[in-house]
Design goal:
The complex is a heterotrimer of chains A (216), B (219) and C (251). Chain A is mainly α. Chain A has nine helices and no strands. Chain B is mainly α and 219 residues long. Chain B has one domain: Orthogonal Bundle (MetI-like fold). In chain B, α1 crosses α4 and α2 (44-59) crosses α4. Classes of the chains: A mainly alpha (216), B mainly alpha (219), C alpha/beta (251).
Chain lengths: 216, 219, 251
């Protein structure tokens, strides 16, 4: 049957997949940014060992594929008494992986902030946590916005790997549809287009946010 | 501790992953040179085609591209296994990434150097051989190595389309023996050695080139 | 000699050159001065066709360059190969980033003769060494550009331009990016070239230097040569009001 006809019949079934993908991407991105900030804080405040620990963590996640932590959490957690749902396991893996990259992005931004600001904050009598919260973090986040956007897009694309642990996000949806209808081309082309739309929307969102914040 | 025979299996899987990555890197580099040439074509339509290609490859998850190709291949009547489909998809993927790296390298060449080469009246072949290629190499080595590392990691995605490599080997062993931590730890170690090794190799090459005058320009 | 007639160029809506006429005799040195944006750099770049121009003619020794008459009337660009050949008659030195960082100083100088003019390796080598000695850098032949100071790099760039045995040397603010103490060595090299009677077109802010080496100075404003004459005439007895203003600011 023609592509258009196929879409009109099966198009609505994509909504489940789309919802799951967006849902996971949303809270995993948020979690990854938070985790990245935590890693940054550890790096900045826990002395040489803190920095070394974070370095080791980052190097580990930089040099291993994201499927490994996904499998690890999914298979191992039930074994150690944490029978969490697949979605949580998958999202957690994405947070751990992308948090590493995000902490590196934030670290680069911290180096870009003028040293003078740290001195100014100290002379105002701000404690380290206060300095971090009020001076460092806001500026670092604003400065990193474009690079953070890139990471969120990567995370969005990584959600497709969660199909390997049977989560019914977009890619899984396409596989199911393929098996049901035998129309592989149509199923996956629609999914590809949907991802393109998601990715482009995210990029536009971050660009708009970047402009908005820059005008302050 | 370690299930018997699994270390050997994982090592074999790692070798397959490395081979897949190597094939993708070679193929991707060749494809990228063609693509980068298209990116700088005088014909606007060709440049647009390049941008569309990069947009699609970068905006779609690798898994989706792989599945598309994997399911599309029988339809195209190509009786080839998942390995060919997998390698092909990796080449398409890395080709786009390398092309962007090369394009960035070309754009990084300061304008007076282009104009000096033009003013010296250099013919195109000499221009490419003596100016463009060496300079682009100089500017793109770090990101190129980065993409190589990404390719090794990307090969693990192919496990989902039944390409037997390190990740699939690990998953199979886990489903048999339930030694999750050990096996995944070993698999991670293999990946780490491969990726970290490529990174170190890249740094060594970079240092070697720096000695021969690739060091930064003085203002 | 060079004859420029009626040169016009616009970038989009902005008219950068509005009818420039200039003659440069054999062995003459002409300096182009003016505010930023007056068109002096664009004029220079049109001479060796790094910029295309919309109307006008440039002749070198009475041969028109860059465009020829199209069969159906109007004009058309010469082929790339012909443009390359024509460019070899001119040498150009830019403000910075002239040299190729991945080649030694000598290789930089030899590049043009070896690959564009097909000079033999032996001959090119001798030529390169001679020119580098001329600019005082024979000791740096095997060095890489990154190991040279800005002034030294510019001197190599001049040697490289001269290696092509050009009829005219185009110099685009070659000392503007240098630390002050390095400017002198570059100006010395230019001074030493005066005896070779090679045509030079120098875009510069350094009026003191222009007075010293130029036979004539052209002051450009809004894309046209507004005043043209000997250094004494243009710098000491300016007639045009915008030139007077310009000189007052530069003093």
């Amino acid at each position: 049957m023609s592509f258009a006809r196929w879409v009109s019949i099966y198009g609505s079934t994509y909504w489940t997949g789309l919802a799951w993908t967006a849902f996971i991407a949303l809270w995993a991105s948020f979690g990854a940014v938070v985790w990245g900030c935590v890693l940054l804080l550890i790096r900045l405040s826990a002395g040489r060992w803190g920095a070394r620990g974070v370095d080791a963590y980052v190097q580990l996640f930089r040099n291993t594929p994201v499927l490994l932590p996904i499998y690890l959490i999914y298979f191992a957690f039930p074994m150690i008494g944490l029978p969490w749902p697949a979605v949580v396991c998958g999202g957690l893996a994405l947070i751990l992986q992308n948090g590493a990259y995000i902490s590196e992005v934030l670290r680069g931004s911290v180096n870009a902030i003028d040293r003078v600001q740290f001195d100014a904050a100290r002379s105002l009598g701000l404690a380290p946590w206060g300095t971090f919260r009020k001076v460092v973090l806001p500026q670092v986040l604003v400065y990193s916005l474009p690079a953070l956007g890139n990471q969120v897009v990567l995370l969005l694309k990584d959600t497709s790997l969660l199909s390997a642990i049977s989560i019914t996000e977009l890619t899984m949806q396409a596989k199911l549809l393929t098996e049901q209808t035998g129309a592989a081309y149509e199923a996956f082309i629609v999914v590809a287009l949907l991802y393109l739309v998601l990715v482009s929307s995210t990029e536009v969102l971050f660009r708009v946010a970047h402009h908005a914040v820059r005008w302050r | 501790m370690i299930p018997p025979g699994s270390l050997a299996l994982l090592a074999q899987g790692a070798a397959v992953s490395l081979l897949l990555a190597a094939a993708a890197i070679v193929g991707g580099t060749v494809l990228a040179i063609v693509l980068a040439a298209a990116a700088f074509s005088r014909i606007a339509a060709v440049r647009a085609l390049y941008r569309v290609y990069v947009y699609i490859v970068r905006g779609t998850p690798l898994l989706v591209l792989a599945l598309l190709l994997f399911y599309a291949m029988p339809a195209l009547d190509l009786r080839t296994g998942p390995y060919i489909a997998g390698t092909l998809v990796l080449i398409i993927y890395t080709g786009a990434l390398f092309a962007e790296v090369f394009r960035g390298g070309v754009l990084a060449i300061p304008r007076p150097q282009w104009e000096s080469a033009r003013s010296l009246g250099l013919p195109p072949v000499a221009m490419f051989r003596k100016i463009v290629a060496p300079l682009v190499t100089r500017y793109t080595l770090p990101p190129y190595v980065n993409v190589c590392v990404m390719t090794v990691k990307a090969s693990s995605v192919l496990s989902i389309i039944s390409v037997w490599e390190l990740t699939l080997a690990a998953r199979e062993i886990i489903e048999r023996t339930f030694a999750v931590f050990t096996i995944l730890g070993l698999a991670a170690a293999f990946y780490f050695v491969m990726c970290f090794g490529i990174d170190r190799l890249g740094r060594r090459v970079e240092r070697r080139l720096a000695l021969r005058g690739f060091a930064g320009e003085r203002a | 000699m060079i004859a420029i007639r009626g040169l016009r160029k616009a970038f989009g809506g902005l008219r950068v050159l509005q009818g420039v006429d200039l003659d440069i005799g054999d062995g003459e040195v002409v300096a182009l001065i003016g505010r930023s944006g007056c068109g002096k750099t664009t004029l220079l770049r049109c001479i060796n066709f790094l910029e295309e121009y919309d109307a006008g003619e440039i002749r070198l020794d009475n041969t028109p360059l860059w465009y020829r008459e199209a069969p159906g009337g109007g004009r058309q660009r010469v082929s790339e190969a012909e443009a390359r050949r024509q460019r070899q008659q001119m040498g150009i030195v830019f403000q910075q980033y002239n040299l190729f960082p991945h080649m030694t100083v000598l290789d930089n100088v030899l590049l043009g003769p070896r690959f564009s003019q097909r000079v033999s390796a032996v001959e090119a080598d001798q030529l390169g060494r001679r020119l580098l000695a001329r600019v005082g850098l024979e000791g740096k032949m095997s060095a890489y550009p990154a190991q040279l100071s800005g002034g030294q790099q510019q001197r190599v760039a001049i040697a490289r331009a001269l290696a092509m045995r050009p009829k005219v040397l185009l110099l685009d603010e070659i000392t503007s990016a240098l630390d002050p103490e390095l400017v002198g060595e570059v100006e010395d090299v230019i001074r030493s070239l005066l005896s070779e009677r090679i045509m030079m077109v120098i875009v510069t802010h350094a009026l003191r230097f222009a007075r010293e080496v130029a036979h004539r100075i052209a002051y450009l404003s809004d894309g046209a040569i507004v005043e043209l004459g000997s250094p004494a005439e243009v710098l000491d007895r300016p007639k045009d009001p915008s030139l007077k203003e310009f000189l007052r600011h530069v003093r």
